[in-house]
Amino acid sequence: MLSYKSIDELCRKATEEKKKISEIVLSDEALQMEQSEDELFSRMAENFKIMCEAVNAGKQPDLRSASGLTGGDAAKMEKYSQTGGLCGSFLNLAIMRAIAVSEYNAAMGKIVAAPTAGSCGILPACIISMLDAGKCDKKQAIMSLFTAGAFGMVIAQNASVAGAEGGCQAECGSASAMAAAVLVELYGGTPVQSAHACAMAIKNQLGLVCDPVAGLVEIPCIKRNVSGTMIAFSSAEMALAGIESKIPADECIIAMKQVGASLPCSLRETSNGGLAITPTGIKLKEQVFGSK
Amino acid sequence: MNVFDIIGPVMIGPSSSHTAGAVRLGRVAWKILGQKAVKADIVLSGSFAQTYKGHGTDKAIIAGIMGMHSHDERIRNALTLAKENCLNFNFSLMDIPDSHPNTARITLTGENGASCTIQGSSIGGGNILVTEINSLEVSFTGQYNTLLVLHHDKPGTIAAVTNFMAYSGLNIGNFRLSRPKKGGEAVMTIEVDGEVPDYLIQNLQILPNIINVILIKAV
To answer: Nearest Cβ partner of B124 from A165, A217, A270?
Structure first.
């Protein structure tokens, strides 16, 4: 059985068995959870369906969060994507999906935490964009969530996926690293390339603080889902091109834990630092909760 | 931990730790109470205390106490629903020393007069760790079916319980004993693999020195 203690373990097992990481993880989890592979696949398919529904619900132009601070940006992005924009409609639609799911979450909509609610837009944005563009089929899309889950388990066991413990690097950083590994797998890369993509994504978000305005999972969380998505794509592209991370993924994860522990409490989801205490951040908080 | 702890839970936003995890803490408290709650006193500590309003942590805990799951769309209106269902609640903010940043202590009174206090933390991604029940130290996540066996600290009690479980073909994944005082009340926290049959609980309850057996199904 797999311990999910290291990325290296996942790579070695998948390489030895000449299988995808998602395949070895599905078999292993079926054993560990005492359920059939079909049962686990169906459960994951249901999660994927909720992700797709969240994109559709989240891109409605009249969507607003309970606080009224956010909503409607995904609709703007979808409209803009039709022009092709700077980097083409593929990436622009990925941006749109990251915003849509995150905005829907802020509006107390139903989402799949992946690994958390604050970072719930990144995996749907990456995977649904691949599916929508015909770069993978639906079964592969659903299977890839097992790869994402495995990378996430390693991160959770060796560092953290909670903003209150590790800052945003633990939430959007982890989601982005998981998504980078997934994109490599979906595009036919090797398990080792997935590990390099994961490492590069973590490296690019080390130190990212959690400083939500008014304590709400809205500002800047929604847009950090977009940057996490973009970093997942760029990391996957580099890994697929044969570029390697000089620092192995497992060491990047340990670095992430250490950096998280060094962050002051004010930058770990308490809203006592960073953007939360900028003049505008404070003004927005007063707008929502009244001044105190 | 399994893959669905990371790709999941399916939940109502906005925060897995402050909303979904909070629902689960409330739900565990409700399960331990074992009846409809009419009164809830909730202490929030750390980040919970500072940001609960923005994350709907109050709505989430109350929803859990009313038995809702973290994917229930009624969470949004939980405070109104509580009033309609005659559940009186009170939130206070306090620093609970040496606790995880997202910690709550929930004291419930049930419609038949029973009461219980649990303390637990939301440890990220909607996962929780319950650390205290009625001042007894426990440690369980709610990810597995968990048996809480309250008993008198007498020789042979643990052996009797675990023997009976072995006889029923139930495998123990985690076992923890908390005993504040020799010979006093103690609690076994037993996380098990697979389903726990009803007859097992009934049979454990009539073993000598057993005060109560509670099954908390994986949440």
So the answer is: A165
